[in-house]
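S.,

Sequence below, as promised.
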Amino acid sequence: MVQTPVGARCRECAQVRRLPTYNIAPTTFGRAIAGAVGGAVALGLAWGFFNAITALFYGFVAGIAIGYAMGEIVSLATNRRAGPPLQAIAVAGLVLAYVVRLGVLYAFGDWSLHDIRTDAIGLIVLVVAALVAAGRVR
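The prediction came back faster than expected:
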Protein backbone atom coordinates (compact mmCIF):
# COMPACT_ATOMS: atom_id res chain seq x y z
CA MET A 1 0.00 0.00 0.00
CA VAL A 2 1.06 3.53 -0.79
CA GLN A 3 -0.29 6.67 0.85
CA THR A 4 -1.69 9.06 -1.75
CA PRO A 5 -3.46 12.40 -1.40
CA VAL A 6 -6.79 10.55 -1.53
CA GLY A 7 -5.90 7.69 0.80
CA ALA A 8 -4.10 4.33 0.73
CA ARG A 9 -3.85 2.59 -2.65
CA CYS A 10 -1.93 -0.30 -4.15
CA ARG A 11 1.32 0.59 -6.00
CA GLU A 12 -0.18 0.01 -9.45
CA CYS A 13 -3.28 2.09 -8.80
CA ALA A 14 -1.46 4.89 -7.02
CA GLN A 15 0.81 6.11 -9.84
CA VAL A 16 1.75 9.05 -7.69
CA ARG A 17 3.46 11.75 -9.75
CA ARG A 18 4.54 15.24 -8.98
CA LEU A 19 2.21 18.02 -10.03
CA PRO A 20 3.20 19.47 -13.42
CA THR A 21 3.59 22.85 -11.75
CA TYR A 22 6.52 21.52 -9.71
CA ASN A 23 8.18 19.45 -12.47
CA ILE A 24 11.14 21.58 -13.46
CA ALA A 25 13.31 20.58 -16.42
CA PRO A 26 16.88 21.89 -16.91
CA THR A 27 15.69 24.14 -19.75
CA THR A 28 13.18 25.66 -17.36
CA PHE A 29 16.01 26.54 -14.98
CA GLY A 30 17.81 28.25 -17.87
CA ARG A 31 14.72 30.29 -18.72
CA ALA A 32 14.26 31.20 -15.06
CA ILE A 33 17.86 32.37 -14.72
CA ALA A 34 17.69 34.34 -17.96
CA GLY A 35 14.44 35.99 -16.86
CA ALA A 36 15.84 36.79 -13.42
CA VAL A 37 19.01 38.35 -14.85
CA GLY A 38 17.08 40.42 -17.39
CA GLY A 39 14.55 41.47 -14.79
CA ALA A 40 17.32 42.28 -12.31
CA VAL A 41 19.01 44.64 -14.74
CA ALA A 42 15.73 46.39 -15.61
CA LEU A 43 14.48 46.58 -12.02
CA GLY A 44 17.90 47.60 -10.69
CA LEU A 45 18.19 50.43 -13.21
CA ALA A 46 14.68 51.67 -12.43
CA TRP A 47 15.26 51.31 -8.68
CA GLY A 48 18.53 53.24 -8.94
CA PHE A 49 17.25 56.08 -11.12
CA PHE A 50 14.05 56.53 -9.12
CA ASN A 51 15.74 56.34 -5.74
CA ALA A 52 13.46 58.89 -4.14
CA ILE A 53 12.47 56.35 -1.49
CA THR A 54 13.22 58.16 1.74
CA ALA A 55 10.32 57.18 3.96
CA LEU A 56 9.85 53.73 5.42
CA PHE A 57 6.27 53.41 4.14
CA TYR A 58 7.32 54.11 0.56
CA GLY A 59 10.13 51.61 1.01
CA PHE A 60 7.60 48.89 1.83
CA VAL A 61 5.47 49.85 -1.16
CA ALA A 62 8.51 49.81 -3.45
CA GLY A 63 9.60 46.45 -2.01
CA ILE A 64 6.20 44.96 -2.72
CA ALA A 65 6.22 46.29 -6.28
CA ILE A 66 9.79 45.17 -7.03
CA GLY A 67 9.25 41.74 -5.48
CA TYR A 68 6.00 41.19 -7.31
CA ALA A 69 7.63 42.20 -10.60
CA MET A 70 10.57 39.80 -10.12
CA GLY A 71 8.29 36.96 -9.06
CA GLU A 72 6.07 37.54 -12.08
CA ILE A 73 9.07 37.68 -14.43
CA VAL A 74 10.40 34.34 -13.17
CA SER A 75 6.92 32.84 -13.18
CA LEU A 76 6.24 33.91 -16.77
CA ALA A 77 9.68 32.81 -17.95
CA THR A 78 9.01 29.30 -16.61
CA ASN A 79 5.42 29.00 -17.84
CA ARG A 80 3.98 29.43 -14.33
CA ARG A 81 6.15 26.76 -12.72
CA ALA A 82 6.78 26.98 -8.98
CA GLY A 83 8.95 25.53 -6.27
CA PRO A 84 11.86 26.25 -3.93
CA PRO A 85 14.53 26.32 -6.69
CA LEU A 86 12.61 29.02 -8.55
CA GLN A 87 12.16 30.94 -5.30
CA ALA A 88 15.93 30.93 -4.86
CA ILE A 89 16.42 32.14 -8.44
CA ALA A 90 13.94 35.00 -7.91
CA VAL A 91 15.64 36.08 -4.67
CA ALA A 92 19.07 35.88 -6.32
CA GLY A 93 17.69 38.09 -9.10
CA LEU A 94 16.63 40.64 -6.49
CA VAL A 95 20.09 40.63 -4.94
CA LEU A 96 21.50 41.28 -8.41
CA ALA A 97 18.97 44.11 -8.86
CA TYR A 98 20.21 45.61 -5.57
CA VAL A 99 23.79 45.44 -6.83
CA VAL A 100 22.75 47.10 -10.12
CA ARG A 101 21.00 49.79 -8.06
CA LEU A 102 24.18 50.42 -6.07
CA GLY A 103 26.11 50.68 -9.33
CA VAL A 104 23.65 53.24 -10.67
CA LEU A 105 23.84 55.24 -7.45
CA TYR A 106 27.63 55.10 -7.56
CA ALA A 107 27.76 56.23 -11.18
CA PHE A 108 25.11 58.97 -11.05
CA GLY A 109 24.59 59.84 -7.40
CA ASP A 110 26.43 60.64 -4.24
CA TRP A 111 28.04 57.35 -3.17
CA SER A 112 28.60 58.54 0.39
CA LEU A 113 24.84 58.77 0.90
CA HIS A 114 24.16 55.35 -0.61
CA ASP A 115 26.76 53.14 1.03
CA ILE A 116 25.56 49.59 1.70
CA ARG A 117 26.48 49.98 5.36
CA THR A 118 24.12 52.95 5.79
CA ASP A 119 21.42 51.97 3.29
CA ALA A 120 18.78 50.79 5.74
CA ILE A 121 15.79 51.68 3.54
CA GLY A 122 17.35 49.94 0.54
CA LEU A 123 17.96 46.79 2.57
CA ILE A 124 14.40 46.86 3.92
CA VAL A 125 13.13 47.18 0.34
CA LEU A 126 15.32 44.20 -0.62
CA VAL A 127 14.00 42.01 2.22
CA VAL A 128 10.35 42.90 1.52
CA ALA A 129 10.89 42.31 -2.20
CA ALA A 130 12.52 38.93 -1.53
CA LEU A 131 9.57 37.82 0.61
CA VAL A 132 7.04 38.90 -2.00
CA ALA A 133 8.98 37.33 -4.90
CA ALA A 134 9.43 34.05 -3.03
CA GLY A 135 5.73 33.97 -2.26
CA ARG A 136 4.91 34.67 -5.91
CA VAL A 137 6.68 31.52 -7.19
CA ARG A 138 5.77 29.29 -4.25
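The chain has a mean pLDDT of 86.

Coffee later?
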